[in-house]
Amino acid sequence: MLKKNSTKLKKEKFVRFYLNDNLIEKSISDPQQTLLDFLRIDQNLKGTKEGCAEGDCGACTVLIGKVNKYHKVSYRTANSCIVFLPSIDCSHLITVDGLSKGLEELHPVQEAMVRNSGAQCGFCTPGFVMSMYGLFLKTKKPNRAQILNSIQGNLCRCTGYGPIISAAEDLSKSFSCSNDFLIKNNKKWAQKLTYLIENGSKEKENNPNYSIPKNTRELKEVLYHKENSTIVAGSTDVGLWVNKQFKKIKPIVFINQIDELKYIKIYNNKILLGSLVTYSDFQDFVTEYFPNLNEYINRIGGDQIRNMGTIGGNIANGSPIGDISPLFLALGAKMKIIGKETTRKINVENFFIEYGLQAINAKEYIHDFEIPNPKTKQFDFIAYKVSKRRYEDISTITGAFFFEKKLNKKSNVRFAYGGMAGIPKRSKSLENLFNQKFESNFDEKSIEMAIKNDFQPLTDCRATSLYRHRVAENLFKKFLCFVKNIPNIKEV
Fold it and tell me: Are the C-beta atoms of residues 441 and 462 closer than 8 Å to each other?
């Protein structure tokens, strides 16, 4: 009898990961089960809370550790309410329940919250603790700006942020990361996760409902043989399909394990960005190469979203208000799309056909993006995002502006907007106007007519058509002040 059960287990599809100190081997019947439901229902770990179920409030924050290219475990915060359980295969999951051993032995982050009265009702407190902990694992002595960024994705309704920020500042003076249990045992956890990565696939057979390819070769095979698959990377968008729209998605192909797609390669005249580069990694990159974009990227969700969401996923979903799309349109980016039997490179601009329709089929995936290197090609580039809230909000309108001045030649310009049409779209009329008028003066009417010629935006819950037109005009004017070095421009 025991022998039969043992044989049966080996034929099932397992996800294997560490939950705090314990190895979890779980057979997946529903690939749409969220990490939050697994923790609260299956594991009875109630410290992690459910608030918004869409990645906005941070009450469900956990740390997910993965082995990086330096053979160390890198821990990042994530919203467990929108992460599907198969996504954390071969990872180390840390929850607030694993930080301390009862009330007598609090973690230093928890102690700081107590000392500074950082909780009232306490519902949001575990999420704040995990976000602060994630910050101190990657930044030894964070400043106030870094602290504020780290809790950007956490909502508190009653304590007020003052005591919470004070707790983090207090911790910055007293907490020694070198003594933390995750830092001291990083090598051990790297070895354990590496073992799971190298040996886990031997016990996994094909499952009709989901797949976790480990490399692009496996990904091409899976997409070729599984009809109408849905690719899931960070699930920052697909997670809402399930939680808010109650969609049933089968089969799912989880690709966030594929390290081959997480690269940033710098060449003399171009930069290649793998499609699984996260917003956080992209932000680190733009800080050096496109510093004008740092604040723009910082307005994409909170840390938890930026740590999981990918630039490829943002492009692939084809949203007219996707934050990355206008950037790549204005930069003239190219993208490589690969299937088992095809490889093709197209302009990102040609990827968007119409609302809900992109130039890719279910047997293909986005491999990487190519953008110009600003350190070798001299050009001006800036982007703006307008939303109802400054942070943690969906875009109402975005505008991205590229300007490369050429001596004795027509300037190379590309202006792109999001939120102005059914797809992210360039404004060709505005580009022509710029080339005609740049050395002289722009009049209000010509700007207005150029934008109206290219866009007929909708009126919806975020803005009226008139508002969108007016803001699009003002973003262009703000760009003009930027390239002409006109000071004292107010923030939009």
Answer: no
Phi-psi region of 464 (alpha: psi -120 to 50; beta: other; left: phi over 0): beta
C-alpha separations of 348 from 180, 353, 459 in Å: 44, 11, 26
- Structural contact between residues 65 and 94, judged by C-beta atoms closer than 8 angstroms: yes
Of all residues in the chain, the percent with pLDDT exceeding 70 is 93
What is the C-alpha separation between 107 and 96, in angstroms, rounded? 10
Q: Position 291: which residue type?
A: P
CA-to-CA dists, residue 87 to 3, 155, 234, angstroms = 31, 25, 8
Which region holds residue 437: left if phi is over 0, alpha if psi is between -120 and 50, else beta? Answer: alpha
- Least Cα distance to 27 among 18, 39, 38, 15 occurs for 15
Tokens of 231: 């690719």
pLDDT band, very low/low/confident/very high, at 10 (cuts 50, 70, 90): very low
How far from 215 is each of 256, 257, 259, 370, CA to CA, in Å? 10, 8, 7, 21
135-182 pLDDT, tens digit each = 999 888 899 999 999 999 999 989 999 999 999 999 998 887 778 889
d(CA 236, CA 392) in angstroms, rounded, equals: 13
* The token pair that represents 150 in the structure block: 């780290």
Domains of the chain: 1-205 (3.10.20.30), 276-492 (3.30.390.50)
* φ, ψ (nearest 5 deg) of residue 113: -65, -40
